[in-house]
User: Which sequence fits this backbone?
């Protein structure tokens, strides 16, 4: 497993991998390792004390190194309700051919931005968006 490094205000911040977090959890629980002890025992990992302090604080508070459920960014536009509405408007009805609407019309009708409608069509419905042209 590779780890990533970020440069933030002239500090090298190493992202601790999931396997390393599990190792930290086991050693912290069984032997009571501190951040300084981890750095001393594993000098080749290039961990910094701030990152390890954060992991150990999380372990003390929650008892796990996993993310909390629902801790990510909330979906604002690509909700299931909007996906169903866009699906109904983007596809022609069987008994009424040519009743589909353009991205711009769907955006106006639903109140969802055009870029979000395009993302719903492409990612959630697995369709391609074409510009309507007069024939």
Assistant:
């Amino acid at each position: 497993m590779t780890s990533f490094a970020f440069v933030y205000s002239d500090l090298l911040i190493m992202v601790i991998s999931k396997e390393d977090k599990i190792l930290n959890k086991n050693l912290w629980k069984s032997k009571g390792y501190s951040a300084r002890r981890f750095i001393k025992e594993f000098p080749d990992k290039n961990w910094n004390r701030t990152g390890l302090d954060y992991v150990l604080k999380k372990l003390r508070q929650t008892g796990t190194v996993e993310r909390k459920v629902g801790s990510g960014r909330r979906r604002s536009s690509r909700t299931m309700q909007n996906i169903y509405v866009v699906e109904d408007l983007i596809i022609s009805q069987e008994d009424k051919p040519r009743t589909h609407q353009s991205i711009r019309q769907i955006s106006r009708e639903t109140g969802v931005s055009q870029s979000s409608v395009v993302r719903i069509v492409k990612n959630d419905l697995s369709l391609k968006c074409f510009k309507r042209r007069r024939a």
The chain has two domains: 5-62, 80-124. The chain has six helices and two strands. Strands lie at 5-8, 11-14.
